[in-house]
Amino acid sequence: MTVAAMSNDPIREWILSEGNSTQITRISSVGGGCINLASRYDTDAGSFFVKTNRSIGPSMFEGEALGLGAMYDTRTIRVPRPYKVGSLPTGGSFIIMEFIEFGVSRGDQSVLGTKLAEMHKAGKSEKGFGFDVNNTIGSTPQINRWASDWIQFYGEHRLGYQLKLAREQYGDNSIYEKGQRLVKSMGPLFEDVVVEPCLLHGDLWSGNISSDKNGKPVILDPACYYGHNEAEFGMSWCAGFGGSFYSSYFKVMPKQPGFEKRRDLYMLYHYLNHYNLFGSGYRSSAMSIIDDYLRMLKP
């Protein structure tokens, strides 16, 4: 079927001009997202992947596009190439990107580990820790203000921000106060560690990991920033990383002293975010991590 021309449609206008297409042959819905609507636009010049959101302005998609572009520019792991972000005339926004034909599995864990480590090694920032724009983790704002000190950045803009949200949203003074004690006392976890600002996907769980039709790993829907490479494993509780993933990763990015002691610290950010997004079912996991660290560090 040939889709009829629609007036004042910026998605169609871009595809038929800068997208080098002369005809859109089919538009079909793509499932999987819970925040945005996703569609596949088939044309005589290939296919495009389009996400739209009728209630949010273009800043969210601008952050995604900058993250995808930064990862794409490392020429390491495959990500969808971003093409265009804009506003919809009826309100809301859109992003157009490369359409990748996914394979039947998530691909080889060993290759994923290698490619992710290569991205971390290649993507470095001279500005420190942070990103050029704020973005979102799920639908939660993620503050990426530049900082030269990783412990300060992670304590303030990651754990601290989520703890404040929990207090504001649920009146949860207990998790806030205990969490702030942890933030102030977590320095010893980084003794003898060199922390470099590496480009992170930022939200690496199983739903954001796939493979292309050739079996090569693909990562998508990022919440990018420059941070400690170990923070990339913060969603490992629902990412399914196996032994071959980690062994391949550490061949490229060697494991640093105290890695195991810091793993839960990076999971805590995502448990807190899930608590703020989805409710009390995630509170006990977050509080358990905080309590364990407070016993270990004895602040």
TrEMBL record:
<dbReference type="GO" id="GO:0016301">
    <property type="term" value="F:kinase activity"/>
</dbReference>
<dbReference type="GO" id="GO:0009507">
    <property type="term" value="C:chloroplast"/>
</dbReference>
<keyword id="KW-0808">Transferase</keyword>
<dbReference type="InterPro" id="IPR016477">
    <property type="entry name" value="Fructo-/Ketosamine-3-kinase"/>
</dbReference>
<dbReference type="GO" id="GO:0102193">
    <property type="term" value="F:protein-ribulosamine 3-kinase activity"/>
</dbReference>
<dbReference type="InterPro" id="IPR011009">
    <property type="entry name" value="Kinase-like_dom_sf"/>
</dbReference>
<comment type="function">
    <text>Initiates a process leading to the deglycation of proteins. Phosphorylates low-molecular-mass and protein-bound erythrulosamines and ribulosamines, but not fructosamines or psicosamines, on the third carbon of the sugar moiety. Protein-bound erythrulosamine 3-phosphates and ribulosamine 3-phosphates are unstable and decompose under physiological conditions.</text>
</comment>
<keyword id="KW-0067">ATP-binding</keyword>
<dbReference type="GO" id="GO:0005524">
    <property type="term" value="F:ATP binding"/>
</dbReference>
<comment type="similarity">
    <text>Belongs to the fructosamine kinase family.</text>
</comment>
<keyword id="KW-0150">Chloroplast</keyword>
<protein>
    <recommendedName>
        <fullName>Protein-ribulosamine 3-kinase, chloroplastic</fullName>
        <ecNumber>2.7.1.172</ecNumber>
    </recommendedName>
</protein>
<keyword id="KW-0934">Plastid</keyword>
<dbReference type="Pfam" id="PF03881">
    <property type="entry name" value="Fructosamin_kin"/>
</dbReference>
<keyword id="KW-0547">Nucleotide-binding</keyword>
<keyword id="KW-0418">Kinase</keyword>
